[in-house]
Write a structure and sequence with these properties.
The structure holds two protein chains of two kinds. By secondary structure, chain A is mostly helical. Chain A has eleven helices and two strands; from the N terminus they run H-H-H-H-E-E-H-H-H-H-H-H-H. Chain A has helices spanning 2-31, 38-56, 60-86, 92-113, 139-161, 163-173, 175-180, 185-210, 218-232, 237-257, 262-276; strands at 129-132, 135-138. In chain A, strands 1-2 form a two-stranded antiparallel sheet. In chain A, a hairpin with a 2-residue loop joins strand 1 (129-132) and strand 2 (135-138). Chain A is globular. Helix content of chain B is 72%, strand content 3%. Chain B contains 16 helices and four strands. In chain B, strands 1-4 form a two-stranded antiparallel ribbon. A two-stranded antiparallel sheet of chain B has the order 2-3. The chains are: A mainly alpha, B mainly alpha. Chain A binds chain B through residues 28, 32, 34, 36, 82, 85-86, 91-93, 95-97, 99-108, 110-111, 219, 223, 226-227, 230, 260, 263-264, 267-268, 270-271, 274-275, 278, 287, and chain B through 63, 69, 71, 116, 119-124, 126-128, 130-132, 134-135, 138-139, 141-142, 149, 265-266, 270, 273-274, 277, 281, 305-310, 312-317, 320-321, 324.
Chain lengths: 287, 352
């Protein structure tokens, strides 16, 4: 019974990691850009929500609705002003630029908010739980998982059912030919990064309401997100969810054996998958 | 030298290169005798600069020449440092000899790491090395004999009986602690010089030519007979041993270790990358210039805490966008200087 409980908790934790990873997966799939500042972007969005909640007295849900468009604009600008300039066959420039961005965001947040742990207040649902068959689960973890599924359903709708999504897929397959068909890859990239930042805002809501956060926790979230993306395989959002669940379950199982082994178990699961399937479980696009 | 019978030959020798070699020799000698005049503070600063220079040269060899963008170099610094502490505390070795253990540990970790990471390419490789470094940190934190997650210190007895300390203390008339710093500084100087000379010799050799060919176009290099896979293994293993040695040396000087400090991605990888990028990636001069800029920034902005790192991050972004070849690239394009010439030029019978 304890094992079933552990596995269910792990799956739900996987929902959080999938939320961290979905924006990354989208950007990575479309422009092969590795955003090493992704984790710090999540933390940045969490502080934005925190400011809206504590400063204006809004409910966290309303704060997300305000923060998401702001983050879209931020992502759009970042892509247009900075990242588009360094995209190319050489992966080093974007990697280094986003690495610099990661350090810059962390320290800007440190300067603005100090190193204290913060939490987005969410009095209605904190600690609430429901019985789900034989196991009892928290309401927040269930909401997180449901949000991850919803985000992926919506993004897949956009990618496979709209003109915007068609331009995403075309640019992902072959940016040069897509350009000949009247698509401007640089504009498509900017919209994609903007969308990814909206997903980041949703991830930030759950990051910030479920546990404490501080300016330094971004890189660890980035690792979990990347593990989920790579396990899932490039270009498959459902694969990313599966990857998140694998990391989540491995972590809770590891923690059940010895609390010190939680993160280690996640890493080992990741390395194991890589050993067997270097391109991930459900690769859709070529990298 | 204009003998008409002298054949045409390819050479990397230039007049600037020879001049720089002489100047470098003078600098090295000056560096060796410096402890006779310098304050302990200056020696410690120079130690930091030299070890960061070593790490930067190694990362530059990996990423700038080998095309292996690793974000997991802290794994080798950490494992090298822990090997030293293990050798001293558990094996009763002399700390000076135990530095070699750091290089061996780097090699031992590099083999499984390369086995995993070389299955990955480009960005996947970068993330893979990072995850392996994190895994190593978490595993080392389980090593209770060396303090687990909280870490440990080198025993006082081992550090004060260290080989050479007594002689250095007597030679300069300083206390044991200062003598240890001088000794560590000398080793750092030798390591940095050996690394730069070694990398320079490597790049001028056949192997270096193959390496640069692979960086520029792996398929084309493969088609003219370069064994790409073997070459990447060789570069990765060399870099791992050198990083392990440097890591052991760094923590020999601090004499205190913890998993978080020894495997810190900011200290041993982020800073190193910034040094290389700001100085100029893919050149030997770049990291040298970069480490000086880095240290100047650090000294001037040290009192401003996080503003310093914020500036460093933004500087790296600006450098990558507007000067992708770094400061040295700007300087070299303007002046035509190559302090460490590696180009094979054809020199004719009429000489130069």
């Amino acid at each position: 019974m304890i094992w079933l409980d552990t596995i269910v908790q792990g799956i739900l934790l996987g929902g959080l990691y999938a939320l961290f990873a979905t924006g990354l997966s989208l950007v990575f799939g479309i422009m092969r850009l590795v955003n090493l500042a992704h984790g710090d972007m999540i933390v940045l969005a969490a502080y934005l929500i925190l400011v809206l909640v504590t400063g204006l007295g809004l409910s966290p849900w309303l704060a997300v609705l305000i923060a998401a468009p702001l983050m879209f604009v931020l992502g759009w600008l970042l892509q247009r002003v900075v990242l588009n300039r360094v995209l190319g066959p050489d992966i080093l420039p974007p990697l280094l630029v986003t690495f610099g961005l990661s350090i810059a965001i962390q320290n800007a947040l440190l300067e603005g908010f100090s190193a204290d742990s913060r939490r987005i207040p969410n009095p209605d649902l904190e600690g609430a739980s429901v019985a789900l068959g034989p196991v009892t689960v928290g309401v927040m973890p269930v909401l997180t998982f449901a949000s991850a599924v919803l985000v992926i359903v919506i993004l897949n709708r956009v990618i496979y059912g709209t003109p915007l999504g068609r331009s995403f897929r075309a640019t992902s397959d072959d940016p040069v030919t897509a350009g000949l068909m009247g698509i401007e890859p640089m504009k498509v990239f900017a919209v994609a990064t903007g969308l990814a930042m909206m997903v980041v805002t949703v991830a930030a809501l759950y990051l910030g309401t479920r546990a404490n956060f501080d300016p330094a926790i971004g890189p660890a979230r980035l690792i979990y997100a990347f593990q989920a993306v790579i396990i899932g395989g490039l270009g498959s959002l459902w694969g990313t969810l599966a990857g998140g669940v694998i990391i989540g379950v491995a972590q809770t199982l590891g923690a059940a054996v010895n609390p010190e082994w939680q993160i280690l178990a996640g890493h080992l699961a990741f390395l194991l998958v890589l050993l067997v399937r270097p391109r991930g479980l459900f690769p859709r696009a070529r990298d | 030298m204009s003998s008409p019978s002298a054949p045409w030959r390819a050479t990397t020798r230039t007049r600037t290169g020879t001049l720089v070699a002489l100047l470098a020799l003078a600098l090295i000698v000056a560096g060796l005798v410096l402890p006779a005049f310098a304050s302990r503070r200056l020696i410690q600063d120079l130690f930091y600069i030299l070890t960061m220079l070593s790490l930067a040269q190694i990362w530059n060899l990996l990423a700038g020449y080998g095309g292996l963008v690793s974000v997991g170099q802290q794994a080798f610094v950490g494992i090298g440092a822990y090997a030293l502490f293990g050798g001293v505390i558990l094996g009763g070795m002399d700390p000076l000899l135990a530095i070699l253990l750091g290089g061996a540990a780097g090699l031992v970790l590099a083999i499984p790491m390369a086995f995993f990471a070389f299955r990955l390419h480009g960005a996947y490789f970068a993330i893979g090395t990072w995850v392996i470094a994190e895994t190593t940190r978490l595993l080392v934190a389980q090593w209770k004999a060396l303090g687990g997650g909280t870490g440990t210190s080198l025993p006082r007895a081992a550090t004060s009986d260290m080989m050479g300390v007594a002689q250095v203390a007597e030679l300069f008339g300083v206390r044991d602690a200062a003598a240890r710093d001088i000794l560590a500084y000398w080793i750092a100087l030798l390591l940095a010089v050996a690394l730069i000379a070694g990398i320079y010799a490597l790049l001028r050799s056949r192997l270096g030519l193959a390496l640069i060919a692979v960086r520029d176009n792996a398929e084309a290099a493969g088609s003219v007979g370069v064994d790409v896979r073997w070459l990447k293994w060789a570069v990765f293993l060399i870099a791992s041993v050198a990083t392990g040695l440097t890591g052991a040396l760094i923590f020999l000087q601090t004499a205190r270790i913890s998993p978080d400090a020894a495997f810190a991605i900011t200290d041993w990888t982020a800073y190193v990358i910034f040094i290389v990028v700001i100085g100029g990636i893919g050149t030997i001069e770049g990291p040298i210039l970069g480490v000086l800029v880095f240290f100047a920034l650090r000294s001037t902005l040290a009192d401003y805490g996080s503003w310093y790192l914020l500036t460093l991050g933004l500087t790296a972004i600006v450098a990558m966008i507007f000067a992708p070849k770094g400061l040295w690239g700007l300087l070299s394009a303007r002046t035509g200087w190559h302090l460490f010439p590696i180009r094979h030029r054809l020199v004719g019978p009429t000489g130069d």
